[in-house]
Design a protein that fits this description.
The protein has 404 residues and is of the alpha+beta class. It has twelve helices and ten strands.
Length: 404
């Protein structure tokens, strides 16, 4: 019996027991689909987080007061930090939630009070779409993010232009205050970021932020270095200065932590998916054993017309392999669909508040993962079908023909 005939006979046998075959194939498909979906989403999330962290610069360090700490930073702190070896520049800043009013429409976002000359350190690659950035000493001019200038309900009345007034309301040390400013520039669309959404922000020079918030001390300090390899040294020096009064955030260290967490989580879920596939393999074995018992007389007829034991074994083994392969192919398709469908939900988890945009996550479907999953499904089918196939090949044809 030729190999192609064996495969054709096995496929025909699967079709004759359609309901049972479909249920068994679905078991393999679910396990395979989960593996593909988890691997694709895991790599997609890792890539997205990496790209978003790089938007605030891998060579930046942000210093914040620790939870419960009353520390606030001054120009003296900025000078002390600037003297740390390998530090290129230091930029103290304010970052507070605020409400912006544009043509009667209210927009929730954040104020970023920082020297405009160092804004590129905070948002590498951000560009001015219209106008020009105000001088560092201005207390009446501001720059606005793309979504502030182009609200979701944008009309001629709500669209913001350079030179127009913008009303800002924010809570400072002396209560809630409302001031009016002149729009000096509008930034082009920058996209979502893990820590700060530039598109829903208003950037103002430090004097303007001090006046609005009534603050003489800074909320945080941005530290920049040209030596990414010395980030850990700079962090240790800052921590030795302030101890537990501060939290030092570094995109590089966060990235390593996030990658480790995502990697561990993906492995954990991958093990669960593999167990699911293993259970599906037991389902194949059970189905094949039942098939052997039901087709004992058929096996006797095949043996009586000259089919060898090896050929009987191959017929049943091919059924199991086909079940695994078909389930694997369907599972890969399901996994790709699941990863694409759930990518939006995963993006919603990777944002830091209602004013932040959900991060766009694109599942990464690698060919090696697809091939590996298909091979795994084939192996599960092969090993699950080996015992029933061998059992079928050892059936005595004389006794088999007497079976009703």
């Amino acid at each position: 019996m030729r190999l192609i005939d064996t495969a054709s006979y096995s496929f025909k046998a699967l079709r004759e027991r359609r309901t049972r075959s479909i249920l068994t194939i679905l078991g393999i498909a679910v396990g395979s689909g989960l593996i593909i979906a988890l691997l694709s989403l895991g790599e997609g999330i890792s890539t997205t987080v990496t790209n978003q962290l790089l938007t605030i610069g891998a060579n930046n360090v942000i210093i914040l007061p620790a939870q419960g700490s009353t520390i606030r930073f001054t120009d003296i702190d900025a000078q002390r930090i600037s003297r740390i070896p390998y530090v290129s520049s230091v930029a103290p800043f304010y970052s507070v939630p605020a409400e912006f009013k544009v043509g009667g429409v209210s927009i929730n976002g954040r104020i970023l009070g920082i020297d405009p000359l160092v804004l590129q350190l905070f948002f590498p690659g951000i560009k001015v779409e219209e106008g020009s950035q105000p001088s560092g000493g201005s207390s009446t001019q501001v720059c606005v993010g793309y979504k502030v200038a182009h609200p979701a309900v944008s009309t001629v009345a709500t669209r913001l232009y350079v030179g127009q007034p913008l009303t800002i309301t924010a809570a400072g040390s002396d209560g809630i205050k409302t001031n009016s400013y002149t729009v000096s520039c509008i930034y082009s669309k920058f996209g979502a970021s893990l820590f700060f959404d530039a598109d829903t922000a208003v950037v103002m020079p430090l004097p303007a932020a001090r006046r609005l918030l009534g603050e003489t001390r800074y909320q945080a300090i941005l530290v920049n270095t040209d030596r990414v390899d010395q980030i850990n040294y700079i962090i240790s020096e800052i921590e030795s200065m302030y101890g537990r009064n501060v939290i030092v955030i570094s995109p590089t260290t966060i990235l390593n932590t996030v990658r480790s967490i995502i990697g561990s989580f993906t492995i954990f879920l991958g093990v669960i998916a593999s167990v699911s596939l293993f259970v599906a393999g037991l389902g194949i074995m059970n189905t094949m054993i039942m098939s052997v018992l039901e087709r004992t007389r058929e096996i006797g007829v095949l043996r009586s017309v000259g089919m060898k034991r090896r050929e009987v074994l191959l017929v049943f083994l091919f059924e199991a392999i086909l079940t695994g392969f078909i389930g694997g192919v369907i599972g890969v398709g399901m996994g790709i669909g699941l990863s694409v469908g759930f990518s939006g939900y995963a993006g919603n988890f990777l944002r830091f508040g209602p004013s932040f945009e959900a991060l766009p996550i694109t599942p990464i479907i690698r060919p090696e993962n697809v091939v590996g999953t298909l091979l795994f499904a084939l192996l599960v089918g092969s090993f699950s079908g080996l015992y029933p196939a061998r059992r079928a090949s050892l059936i005595d044809p004389v006794r088999a023909l007497k079976t009703e």
